[in-house]
Design a protein that fits this description.
heterodimer, A: 276 residues, five-stranded antiparallel β-sheet, B: 254 residues, six-stranded mixed β-sheet, four-stranded antiparallel β-sheet, 37% helix
């Protein structure tokens, strides 16, 4: 079943020197699965995620032939409809919890705020559900974290709180934009494990945006590879070894791996026609 | 082999917090030595303590035969030892051209012949003379890091301290910068002390490495031992698993 269908999406930014096309006509579908979007900085992967959430900053212009999310036409959605969708039916996790959590609000209040905005629940009920959610993201002492401010917790803790906040209303689609790049490798794995289990248990769709092709390939079912605002290749992660596009091959090849002796490392020779 | 950098039971304390607890490492001349660990393990603090940017509260540091004390460093030290930082967006002056940033270290050390040295330095890091009068904002992340490397190399140092030199860069650009660093080391016979959280990068670049955690060296081993999985501490083994990427089996569920 298709949750999100995007057809011919473009995101443009007017600048003094003319229009900058950040995303140039991409189409994809997301079902109840894990879809990875991979690309280097400037490839348009984050802009794609933001456009789907209706969070393209001004003066950016989003246009598409179609963009529907389980029956809702996102292109025609007004502010009230967006407010209803975001947080309840679709949610987004950003890279660094240091910047995406409200610094002057306790973590507990931020989670219950989402709940009380979208659902008609009592304070007590909201608190209980928030605590249950914090437990679901494997926080040992939810009561303690509930009363803490974001600056009092570590990065890994903050990101778990962020995940709890985003999932407390049980969204159908979760967009995670580099959710673990600000974390240490060992913590990264724990957070991915939590995300993996929650996605599996609740059956929601996940769009995982990252620059790390290897990480994405170990986590997602399907990968879209973007270059200069376009999709250059789309494939199942199981077929990653048979990637045909030289850009995908180059990305896979250029990271040093433990136990390999390749000096110098192969580098990407960018071709003009990739961006065409 | 002579020891180029000797750190002996060094400790660094910020107020009550002990960032480094009696750390000892020895780096041989011409060697490339790696420091790995998670954030807060003290790996960057160790580099900063060597350059005098972090206050040492005990122990001894000897670099190129010179015993260092306090946070003052001689001019000769500053010429022998140069540092490349993690974020090229933050380590270059935003309102100075590449040329200006490269002239500065030459002027400080009273090195003449700036014109040819700048051109040679740019050439060495793979940037043409056309980059000379650009501002940092006109360069990509990889190009900026090349400028930072050129700025370090222009005073002809013998030791480079590299603090996560590629972690702010895209994977493909990382490969280019790592190749450049290896090439430069081979050509000039430099000694590297390199900090990274990426085991793949460290084993690629370094012959030996120290694994750090909570201000202490947990394990010291060669890159080949690490690659073969001959690790002693559990922590190193856990880092190894984590660096292989996500797998459903590796994550403890519960």
């Amino acid at each position: 079943m298709t949750l999100l269908a995007v057809r011919n999406l473009t995101v443009t930014y007017p600048t003094r020197t003319g229009l900058i096309e950040a995303v140039r006509g991409i189409s994809f579908d997301v079902g109840r699965e894990r879809l990875g979007i991979v690309g280097e900085s400037g490839s348009g992967k984050s802009q794609t995620g933001r456009a789907v959430m209706g969070l393209t900053p001004k003066p950016g212009i989003v246009s598409a032939d179609a963009m529907t999310f389980s029956g809702v036409d996102l292109l025609k959605a007004g502010p009230a409809q967006w407010r209803d969708l975001r947080g309840r039916r679709m949610a987004m996790i950003l890279q660094d919890p240091k910047f995406s959590l409200n610094p002057v609000m306790t973590i507990g209040r931020q989670i219950t705020e989402t709940l009380r905005h979208h659902e008609n629940v009592t304070k007590k009920e909201a608190r209980q559900r928030a605590l249950a959610m914090l437990e679901a993201v494997q926080i040992r002492d939810p009561e303690r974290l509930f009363g803490l401010y974001p600056h009092e917790v570590s990065g890994g803790m903050g990101q778990r709180a962020m995940i709890a906040m985003m999932l407390v209303c049980g969204p159908e689609l979760l967009i995670a934009d580099e959710p673990t790049s600000a974390l240490d490798v060992t913590v990264q794995l724990e957070v991915l494990g939590i995300l993996d289990r929650l996605v599996r248990d609740t059956g929601m769709g996940l769009i995982f945006i990252s620059h790390d092709l290897r990480l994405v390939s170990s986590f997602c079912d399907r990968v879209i590879v973007m270059y200069a605002g376009r999709i250059v290749e789309e494939l199942a992660t199981a077929d990653l070894r048979n990637a045909r596009h030289p850009y995908t091959q180059g990305l896979l090849d250029c990271t040093p791996k433990i136990g390999e002796d390749r000096h110098p490392l192969p580098v990407l020779e960018r071709q003009k026609e990739w961006a065409a | 082999m002579t020891i180029e950098i000797a750190v002996d039971e060094l400790s660094v304390t910020f107020r009550e917090f002990r960032a480094l607890k009696t750390v000892s490492i020895a780096v041989e001349k011409g060697e490339s030595f790696g420091l790995v660990g998670e954030s807060g393990s003290g790996k960057s603090t160790l580099l900063r303590a060597i350059t005098g940017l972090a206050p040492s509260s005990g122990g001894a540091i000897t670099v190129a035969g010179e015993t260092l004390s306090g946070s003052r460093r001689s001019k000769a030290f500053r010429r022998t030892v140069q540092m490349v930082f993690q974020d090229p967006y933050a380590s270059l002056h935003p309102r100075q051209t590449v040329d200006r940033q490269l002239v500065e270290p030459l002027a400080i050390h009273g090195i003449g012949d700036a014109e040819t040295r700048i051109l040679r330095a740019l050439d060495e890091v793979g940037l043409g003379p056309s980059f000379r009068f650009r501002y940092p904002h006109q360069l990509s992340g990889g190009q900026r890091q090349r400028v930072a490397i050129a700025r370090a190399l222009i005073v002809e140092p013998e030791i480079l301290l590299l603090d996560e030199p590629t972690s702010a860069l895209d994977a493909s650009v990382q490969a280019e910068v790592l190749n450049l660093l290896e090439e430069v080391r081979a050509r000039r016979g430099l000694t590297y002390l390199m900090v990274s959280h990426d085991l793949g990068v460290v084993t690629h670049m370094c012959g030996r490495l120290a694994v750090m955690r909570e201000g202490e060296v947990v394990e010291m081993l060669s890159a080949t031992d690490l690659a073969a999985g001959r690790t002693v501490s559990d922590y190193t083994a856990r880092l190894m698993v984590a660096s292989k990427g996500f797998s459903r089996e590796a994550v403890p569920t519960g």
